[in-house]
Amino acid sequence: MRELTQVVDRISVFILDMDGVLYLGKTPIKGAAETIRWLRKRGKRIVFTTNSSAETRRAQARKLARMGIAARESEIITSGFVAALYLRKRSPRAKVYIVGEKGLRLEFERAGLKLVPYERAEEATHVVVGIDRKVNNKKLTGALRALLGGAKFIATNADATYPTEDGLLPGAGTMIGALEGCSGKKPSVVFGKPSPRMIKIALGILHSKPSKAAIVGDRLDTDIIAGKLAGVTTILVLSGVSTRQDIVKFRRMKIIPDFVIDGIKDLVHR
Amino acid sequence: MRELTQVVDRISVFILDMDGVLYLGKTPIKGAAETIRWLRKRGKRIVFTTNSSAETRRAQARKLARMGIAARESEIITSGFVAALYLRKRSPRAKVYIVGEKGLRLEFERAGLKLVPYERAEEATHVVVGIDRKVNNKKLTGALRALLGGAKFIATNADATYPTEDGLLPGAGTMIGALEGCSGKKPSVVFGKPSPRMIKIALGILHSKPSKAAIVGDRLDTDIIAGKLAGVTTILVLSGVSTRQDIVKFRRMKIIPDFVIDGIKDLVHR
Q: The whole model's pTM is what?
């Protein structure tokens, strides 16, 4: 694939999805760490992105470090971080009721946003919803009260499920569905891919144009669509969720990645 | 309202909604117990119905007894009971994974149906979903596995919320939404009102025609619609959820109760 080597040489910003590209659950993908080092050596700038809001950027950096991948916190963009950034900019005085995990709460606290506890849920101006594997009726009740009280409904991401060694598990879409089911409302904003928001923020931080950037992701339905919407080069890896059959399926919908490779290590040449 | 007194005299089966008609949460509604006695004295047959699947019929009978209303278990129809009846008839060998409360599980066990635990969720032929105020990620994960494994998705009722002294709380619709959100599937059957199923089953048990029966309920969006669909006389009480403003709103949708009364005690005459 001579063309890919030329594109790799031309691109200066690599926006990498993590799960399915760099690791599968807790297992690193072969050659991932070496590829990151190779890209860095060539002066490429790297941004790590994830739809997950369960961990903070700091925790994600530590996770990468454990897999031998050096990453600064500032290079990591999560859907929770982007949601916090958005609210801090648009509604710095927001009172936020969160249905989500500890990492999401921390990200909002670090952004200086005010969190509202269950007891004062009706004071919330925004309900922010992400994956929550410790969901319970009380959390949902607080969110319902906030939404019925007029709070805006915001979701970090809408992934129905996420793949693990034990099969598919319920994702953030489960929490969105639960709150839609009781409140009758739908989220007004969703930050995770397939929205191009995370990619656009990455480009903004690095002052890069879409033409100089590529996304490397394992999902046609999120990473590749987001890349197309943001106007960057799209590279699908087959080491995660999407399969060759999916490529055929998505081609009918005119969603065609610019390049398809077996794994991230195929970016390396010479 | 001379016409109502004539209808009350003519009707032989009174299908009563409970919450909002006989009590509000834990507080009996004034005159409810006396009205039931008056109806019984006149030879009326009474069926108590509720969309809730949280309690068994037995528990509901005990609750009525505490409020001075004598009711036999056989006179009570809950959405959970109807769901169990349906499955016992259509799929007696069903393996059922339940997302719901203890009362729902008990109702299914009493119907002789086989329940499948989390560990064997993928063996389930049916997922039955009702209100679950002890919901957690594990329960949802089991249901997701069952649904992805091909189990049929059945809901006891679809109430988004239910009214309490503390305001609206998340209802069965919350659990339906959560499972729709992760599985991408929708329930194939919903038993609770506005479906006419509970009313039709009540008529079947009593061998009564719709023309000889009336439903007394506090909700236009469930009780009155179900009554219309079943072809029985519909009597709206204003002691619960629906208000006079709602009557105007629903009239535009051609949903018009045959009678509107302040409370169930207005059924009594002479």
A: 0.93
